[in-house]
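ARCHIVE CARD
Drawer: 12
Card no.: 0347
Subject: one protein chain, sequence and derived structure
Cross-reference: see card 0346
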Amino acid sequence: MKKAGILALMAIFAVTQLTAQKKYSADPSATTIKWSGEKIVGSKHTGTINLKEGSLTTDGKSITGGEFVVDMNSIKNEDVKDAGSRAKLEGHLKSDDFFGVVKFPFSRLVLTSSTPFAAGKATAKGTLTIKEATHPVEFTVTESKAGAVITYTATITFDRSLYDVRFGSGKFFSNLGDNAIRDEIKLDVSLVVK
């Protein structure tokens, strides 16, 4: 009898846990991803890249999972004013020197967990895959709600050299001088889910 009671309680607990999970679909048209990278000395470039698709799961207190696919061919530059120079830079970013978008058209962020949200903020953990290389990431995410719209904002900084993005990296080339480019790339993400 006691065993049956315990099993019943466990079943109720399991069902409660499952129903507490809520899955949201990302809205690519409302989501923005802004990137920035800079030389060791001098210029900085900024631009955008598009989210293709994604989803996020929460238990009402924290993020329990998520997966997002980024279209690497959509990378754009925003700071270069001359159209020809801007197109040349975008082409270079898409080339094998950088992200090799013909061979690697998509990058992927998988979220595995987060701390409970406190004052709208949590620390999220997961993995980032670029050019088939996967490494752990951790960042602060902020949740905000406006009616039925939920937005998650975060700044994700990653070391491009870990993903075989070598151009201008002091980890792979010497005597770069003023042409050396920092390995850190920053992504400012505003994710809208529904």
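Annotation on reverse: The longest helix spans residues 2-20. Helices lie at 2-20, 83-94.
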